[in-house]
Amino acid sequence: MTSADRKGTTTGRRLEQAILKLLDHRGPTATICPSDAARAVYAGDGDGDGWRDLMEPARRAARRLVTAGEVEITQGGRTVDPAAARGPIRIRRARRGTGPADGASE
User: Fold this and answer.
1) pLDDT for position 48
2) Residue 101's pLDDT is what?
């Protein structure tokens, strides 16, 4: 593994942790923007607009957390397939036990 790969892996983990930590500090149905995580991770690395370079890595971190069942990606308040999401997204904790398959009524 190259040092660039290690840095990318480390940054990806930091972004995942930032997403989860930010969501922990909000209500159970609240959402965050990937930029919130990017800013949180970049804050320790300098100031200015450098956080913008972390936007795509933050979106990738969110997709990994979707795969792990930790979060959902939404657009317009609706859960979307992360692979199909284009444009602005929001991230929220995965909702458990609320779907029709879990016995909840609609």
Assistant:
1) 75
2) 41
Q: What is the pTM of this model?
A: 0.81
DSSP letter assigned to residue 99? S
Predicted local confidence at residue 16, as pLDDT: 97
- Tokens standing for residue 106: 């609609």
Q: What does each C-alpha distance from 79 to 4, 9, 16, 48, 104 come to in angstroms?
A: 33, 27, 19, 32, 18
End-to-end Cα separation, the chain, in angstroms = 49
**Mean pLDDT over all residues of the chain?**
84
Q: Which helix (H) or strand (E) holds 8?
A: helix 3-24
- 89: which 2 tokens? 């997204």
Q: Are 24 and 32 in contact (CB under 8 A)?
A: no
